[in-house]
Write a structure and sequence with these properties.
Layout (H helix, E strand, L loop, with lengths): L5 E5 L5 E3 L3 H16 L7 H8 L3 H14 L2 E4 L6 E4 L2 H12 L14 H4 L2 H7 L1
Antiparallel strand pairs: 1-2, 3-4
Length: 127
């Protein structure tokens, strides 16, 4: 499929760690997008992997990159997860969300009405 640089030392399980370059991840991501363009419905990651001649574990990282970029939408969780191409509106929303990822969340208003801050007993006493 593609050439993978490998570390020389095996990990704790006796396997060598495989690191893919950014370019290799991008190529797989492009192939995933092409595969999803040819499908009408949301599909499981195993279906996409079979279409590409790869394993689900090999496409999991590129798929998560596509989700983060807003190009692919994931519905469901775990084994029930299904993937489809994002609409233009969803892609813009995801891009906006990821652009503001480094910023702190907006502050919530601390001003509450006096009535909601009193307990039930305190309200009875004030009558």
């Amino acid at each position: 499929m593609w050439e993978l640089p490998q570390d020389d030392e095996p990990n704790d399980f006796g396997a060598k760690r495989v690191r893919r370059t950014t370019a290799a991840l991008e190529r797989v991501a492009d192939r995933i997008v092409e595969d999803l363009q040819g499908r009408r419905r949301a599909v499981a990651i195993s279906t996409v992997a079979k279409g590409l001649g790869m394993t689900p574990r090999e496409i999991a990282h590129p798929m998560s990159l596509l989700i983060t970029r807003g190009k692919v939408v994931r519905t469901g969780e775990r084994r029930g997860a299904r993937y489809r191409l994002a609409t233009k509106r969803a892609a813009k929303r995801a891009a906006k969300r990821s652009a503001g990822a480094g910023q702190p969340p907006p502050k919530k208003s601390t001003a509450t009405s006096r009535r909601t801050s009193k307990t039930k007993a305190a309200r009875k006493r004030s009558r």
